[in-house]
Specification:
The complex is a heterodimer of chains A (294) and B (408). Chain A is mostly helical. Chain A has helices at 6-37, 44-60, 65-88, 97-118, 144-166, 168-178, 180-185, 190-216, 223-237, 242-262, 267-281; strands at 134-136, 141-143. By secondary structure, chain B is of the alpha/beta class. The chains are: A mainly alpha (294), B alpha/beta (408). At the A-B interface, helix 1, strand 2 and helix 10 of A face strand 7, helix 8 and helix 9 of B.
């Protein structure tokens, strides 16, 4: 390819990071929930889609984008609390497949309900006015909104890191992930911790959905493909590892972007090829602990 | 005794004889006496639901007009709408039911290349007349064709050719193709390349994206770097909506002209002005044609009257013409017998809604115009979303030749 320049590669790298940002937000929630609760949350894609739809609904009712950015994660997080408390909690201690099947069924119900209320066809979502257009980032022009998605993800990650590393609740969360039994013996209400962790995870999924809406519009089925890809990210990064989710999320984004440059038809296959290679060389993923699934 | 009002004496005798001879033939005789049934399988559920609903509306207009003007010697027409769910298997089953249990006289419908081929496979074996109202190149080819098959819709070769002729001469000859990686995308690119070769275009890249992609951003920097005059985007529905939005975000429209083989009225209305603004494409029909073509005005007015001021869409209008041609041909020969209707269809010269059309003898493709349109920045709620840049009245020379299609 004669037209391959350093600038193009740089721009392509940025595109990949922007793609990866959404994977990171979704995979962090998945990983957090799995690491703490050992729940494989198959409804995560549905919460993502619901975040986009709640955002759309708010925007249609005159709420501005910035307010929606606060309200959507709160709403989807609250729904997550409700789901954990009423549906998932009774299944703790029954093995991995119980909550897996439950969330799988739940995702179908959520998608169907959205179809009932919003229809099958989906809606376009306008990019907020101040974030429209492209800016020069040194290697070429890049859409402002995608830069915003990267920035929003960084802010969320920093906030989450401070929460987990600098607060006493965060300490309990980390301890609970290591050994829930000891934490319970020490008199900590672990059930409450799990509840909140599930809420945070689903809230992040809702936020990711809202951020994705101006990029691709909303449609009831939008959570399906990205859920599969986010699972790949958590597997590559290591189930239960937050750092793994971040590194693998960005890596998957960049791999998709670079494959698109040379062989666009292969871009989706490349994600799964990456997973296969990582699993062959390091079955627990980049930062995963061996034996967590057993 | 059977009722024989509306029957000729001869038909009555034949029918009575048939009724005595076999219960199966009796059914045919009774269907002949009763209403004319037009089976109409379209994807009411699924991603093209909005388009399919409009197909039903427009087909009902044709039925209503036919009945008001006396039907066929008093026989009224009736539309039997079925949901094919955009699935070839489902469509074949529905078509078979329409033929076997409902005893339809004609089948009109489809909104997908593969679905129409599935329906056509059923109708050609059962020797039932079928008019397909969805784009496909394959249905014209000798191996798919039967004399019971008609194709009222445009095909990718015609559409891509007309849009290519316009775009490459107007906007430049350095071209990048971006298309969905399935039959529709491939056929469209072939249509563009066919005219492009003659015009001496330079293909800078021919990029295929997976069907149903949600993010095209990874493809856009390269297209930007190639600096083409024209970017031809051949995909459909949601894919088209997303890629146009993202191309706008990346600022591609500033340095190149974006061209799509087909711009759908329903899709443009659903997506809003911004993503589509300035995009040039082709269509079989746009209601704005009424400013210059009287039959378009008459059709639009009738549609407006039946549906509270609503305007017909491109695919809807194809359904109108698809149903109307069968009914008018049947009226001409005084029967719905396919063997009599086929030659009448082949001889038909009609102008029902968009100017002159006729079916080519060898492949029953409707020879018609392709409209070149440009999406404009219309405010929400304004139905006038396209400018008609040109009306390309195609001749048989613009179609693939009968020989090329495998007819000898």
């Amino acid at each position: 390819m004669a037209d391959l320049t350093l600038q193009l590669l740089g721009l392509q790298l940025f595109t990949g990071i922007a793609l990866g940002a959404l994977y990171v937000l979704l995979a962090i929630g998945l990983s957090l929930i799995f690491g703490m609760l050992t729940v494989v949350n198959f409804a995560h894609g549905a919460f993502y889609m619901l975040g986009a739809y709640v955002g759309l609904w708010l925007l249609m009712h005159g709420v501005n984008f910035w307010t929606a950015l606060i309200l959507v994660p709160l709403a989807i997080g609250a729904l997550g609390l409700l789901v954990e408390r009423t549906l998932i909690r009774p299944l703790y201690g029954r093995g991995l497949d119980y909550p897996l099947l439950l969330t799988f069924g739940l995702s179908y119900m959520i998608v169907e309900l959205v179809r009932v209320f919003f229809g099958n066809t989906g809606y376009p979502v306008d990019t907020p006015d101040v974030l429209q257009g492209a800016v020069d980032i040194g290697v070429g022009y890049f859409p402002l909104y995608r830069l915003f998605v990267i920035a929003a993800t960084v802010v969320v990650l920093v906030g989450l890191w401070l929460f987990l590393e600098r607060t006493s609740f965060g300490l309990i969360v980390r301890a609970g992930a290591r050994d829930p039994e000891i934490v319970r013996i020490l008199g900590v209400n672990i059930a409450r911790v799990w509840l909140i962790v599930f809420g945070i995870g689903t809230g992040l999924a809702g936020l990711a959905g809202l951020l994705a809406a101006p990029l691709q519009g909303v449609i009831p089925e939008m959570g399906g493909p990205i859920l599969a890809e986010s699972f790949v990210v958590t597997v590559v990064g290591g189930m239960g590892s937050l750092l793994g989710a971040v590194v693998a999320g960005l890596l998957v984004g960049v791999v998709v972007s670079m494959t698109s440059l040379f062989a666009p038809e292969m871009s989706r296959v490349a994600i799964f090829a990456l997973m296969a290679i990582v699993l062959l060389l390091r079955p627990q993923g980049f930062f995963g602990r061996a034996g967590l699934m057993s | 005794m059977m009722k024989n009002n509306g029957l000729t004496r001869r038909q009555a005798v034949v029918a009575t004889g048939a009724a005595l001879a076999s219960p199966f033939l009796f059914n045919i005789a009774r269907a002949e006496a009763a209403t004319i049934k037009v089976g109409f399988p379209v994807p009411l559920t699924g991603p093209y639901g909005a388009e399919a609903q409009d197909q039903v509306r427009a087909a009902q207009v044709a039925i209503a007009e036919f009945n008001e003007t006396g039907g066929l010697k008093g026989r009224r027409a009736e539309l039997l709408v079925r949901d094919d769910k955009l699935n070839p298997g489902e469509a074949a089953t529905r078509a078979l039911e329409l033929i076997e249990s409902d005893k339809v006289d004609f089948i009109v419908g489809s909104l997908s290349a593969s679905v129409q081929l599935a329906v056509n496979n059923v109708t050609k074996v059962r020797k039932v007349l079928y008019n397909s109202i969805s784009q496909s190149d394959a249905i014209n080819e000798a191996k798919e064709f039967s004399r019971y098959t008609f194709h009222e819709a445009l095909n990718p070769h015609m559409t891509g050719g007309a849009v290519g002729r316009y775009a490459f001469s107007k906007y430049g000859k350095r071209v990048v193709f971006l298309s969905a990686d399935y039959a529709y995308g491939h056929e469209m690119v072939r249509g563009f390349q066919a005219v492009g070769k003659a015009m001496g275009i330079e293909t800078l890249a021919d990029i295929r994206h997976p069907l149903g992609a949600t993010d095209f951003s990874a493809l856009l920097p390269r297209i930007q770097a190639l600096k083409p005059d024209v970017l031809v985007i051949s995909n459909f529905g949601r894919d088209q909506q997303i890629v146009l939005k993202q191309a706008t975000d990346f600022g591609l429209k500033k340095s190149m002209k974006i061209v799509a083989p087909i711009l759908l009225y329903t899709a443009r209305i659903a997506a809003g002005a911004k993503a589509f603004e300035g995009v040039v494409g082709g269509t079989s029909y746009y209601w704005g044609l009424e400013k210059t073509i009287p039959s378009a005005k008459a059709f639009n007015d009738r549609f407006r009257k039946m549906y509270n001021g609503r305007l017909p869409s491109d695919y809807g209008s194809l359904a109108y013409a698809g149903v109307k041609t069968f009914l008018m041909a049947a009226r001409q020969v005084g029967t719905t017998d396919p063997e009599a209707v086929i030659p009448a269809m082949e001889a038909l010269k009609y102008d029902y809604y968009k100017g002159p059309e006729y079916y080519r003898k060898c492949d029953h493709q409707a020879v018609q115009s392709v409209l070149i349109i440009e999406s404009k920045n219309a405010p929400p709620g304004d139905p006038d979303v396209f400018n008609i840049l040109a009306v390309d009245q195609l001749s048989e020379a613009d179609l693939r030749s009968c020989q090329e299609l495998g007819f000898h």
